[in-house]
Amino acid sequence: MSIYGMMRTSISGMAAQAFRLTTVSDNIANSDTDGYKRAGAEFTSLVAPGGNGSSSTASLYESGSVIPHVRQTISDQGTFRFTGSSTDLALDGDGFFVVKNEADTPLLTRAGSFVPDGNGDLYNSAGLYLQGYPITNGQIPNVANGYGGLENVNVASIDLVAVPSTSGTFAVNLPAGATVVPAPLPSANTAASTYSQKTSMTTFDNLDNSRVVDIYMSKSASNTWEVTVYDQAGAAAVGAPFPYASPALATTTLSFSPTDGKLTGASPTSIAFTIPGGSPLTLDMTGQPNWAPASSLPMPRSMAARRRQSTTSKSAATAHSTPPTRTAPFAQSTVYRSLLSQVLTN
Q1: CA max distance for the chain
Q2: What values do phi and psi take at 335, rounded to 5?
Q3: Model-level pTM?
Q4: What is the pLDDT of residues 298-329, one digit of tens each?
Q5: Closest to 328 measured CA to CA, from 204, 179, 152, 168
Q6: pLDDT, tens digit (0-9, with 9 covering 90-100), for 133-161
Q7: H or E element, residue 29
């Protein structure tokens, strides 16, 4: 082993440790950097060729060295944290945001801290602009596996849009052993109207206002029920709603089989009405059973007023006794969805 070999081994070892300390320093310095991926140092031993060990003169020991390798944990999921900006984004799982520089070169990043410029285009701290496909009337004209057709995501002209309820489901167990109620029924809308059971449903009009409708179920004959819908806003008083200020929104008669308690083939399976200030809504009543014994109307097992699909995803407006959970969508003539979301969801 020569003096040169000894010095080379020592220097390579110190250089390798310097690489390791550098990665530690980088990790500490970027602990609050959005999208930063932790770096780590790995070492590889380099063994220099020596003698073949045939004799003491031929077998000379040659010192080796250490080669450092820096690895970025690109595939590791980072932690999520809340920010005060409504345009900050985060990725859950694999994928990258597509951004472009001034030369119009597409790049990939995991950092989701974006702010709008003077024109409303989103860009990050490096001056890279977030890219997305334009969505017009719910249609995406481009494929999701290339950069063609991408443009800057602009939030300057995005508005909220109200999406009214247009369809829903309604299914409760109408007790087969209930007593037939005498006339006048709720459809007559008189102070003397009687009914078997009542429930309510929350719907949404064209301005996204909640409109509650009252649904009356009256057993008018054996295996026959009348279903009548009213606008709750027109009720005469709490506890004594009849007569309503306006006629019934809709009324229909359900016929049940005495054998299995299900709707007969000739019976209506839905009821349609127009929400006050809203759009026509159709309630599907296909799963309506008529079983016994039961003395009162149970909580609905499936009752919801759904909104029609818009150009962005949104939650359905549920119709239970508790207030519905719903979200206001972003939608207008042009809405953008990033290439990443296209890759992950399509």
Answers
A1: 121
A2: -125, 145
A3: 0.49
A4: 434 334 454 443 333 232 332 332 333 333 33
A5: 204
A6: 887 766 776 666 678 888 899 988 776 67
A7: helix 3-29
